[in-house]
Design goal:
- Helix 2 packs across helix 4 and helix 4 crosses helix 6.
- This protein has a domain of 102 residues: Cyclin A, domain 1 (Orthogonal Bundle).
- Helix content is 56%, strand content 0%.
- The protein has 154 residues and is mostly helical.
Length: 154
């Protein structure tokens, strides 16, 4: 959001809180119940709602955010949509906005470490399911047996 930095001062704390809130959203089944789907067409709305809440509850209450949402999203997010997005997002995370210092520091360490390389042990469910299906197919496959080699004696 580099274009928004010139309009509204956004502290790094807001982005860390936004990341924590997004993590809570992704891990919560309530997001689906609230009717919010994470897909390319809606991801920018989720990030905007998370940054908005991070700024609001991170000690930097937003002012003049109308221009921020409309300019940063090229008109995709209208300021009038934010109360509804905020409400849906809050319901999805169960209104769990409090972040203790250990949780904040832990999330900062995760961000500093960067993304982990994928490992075979921690594979995604689809790859695990594909591997299990492959093993099952392998067990079901009928193998032709060759006759034993004939031994000729002199």
């Amino acid at each position: 959001m580099p274009s928004t930095r010139g309009i509204v001062r956004i502290d790094g704390t807001c982005f860390v809180l936004a990341g924590i809130y997004l993590t809570r959203f992704v891990r919560s089944p309530a997001g689906r119940e609230a009717g919010i789907l994470v897909e390319p067409a809606t991801a920018h709305r989720l990030v905007a709602a998370a940054v908005f809440l991070g700024a609001k509850f991170g000690g930097h209450p937003p002012r003049r955010w109308t221009a921020v949402f409309e300019d940063s999203s090229e008109g995709a997010i209208r300021a009038g949509e934010m109360p509804g997005l905020e409400d849906c997002f809050l319901r999805a995370i169960g209104f769990r906005l409090f972040v203790d210092s250990d949780g904040f520091d832990g999330f900062c360490k995760v961000l500093e470490r960067g993304p982990r390389a994928p490992s075979g042990v921690c594979a995604c469910k689809k790859r695990q399911a594909d591997a299990a299906a492959g093993e099952e197919d392998e067990r079901r496959r009928v193998r032709a047996r060759l006759p034993l080699p004939a031994v000729l004696s002199n």
